[in-house]
Amino acid sequence: MKKNIKLKWTPCSDTIKTLKTTKKKSGNSKINWPYYDEMDELFGEQPWVQPLSTAGSNIQNKMDAEIKSPPSKRQKILKDFCEQLSEHRKKREETREKHHQEKISAMNRLTDVVTQLVKQTQKED
To answer: Where are the annotated segments for Disordered (predicted)?
Structure first.
């Protein structure tokens, strides 16, 4: 019984390992194994599928990605530009809001004047 299970399990475990490493490489086509999602959900992070560490000169160290290098000149320029753009938009929005409030105030004053004129003409009649 154990041999039957092992005979059925070994190709499945080999397949998930192969597909997991293949998926990491760019330019590969979509994975078409019907059990991939279920197997990945169950075993995707297991050490026998995705080793905790590997040795080799062509292996990218995950810690290298975590080390942040200083921003390049282009990144600094882009960051400064984005900050200036954000400030400009904020000032423009504040100016717009100020003009809007001034218009509302002027319209309210005009409405008050017209209302007073109407009341005066009604009193005169």
So the answer is: 86-109
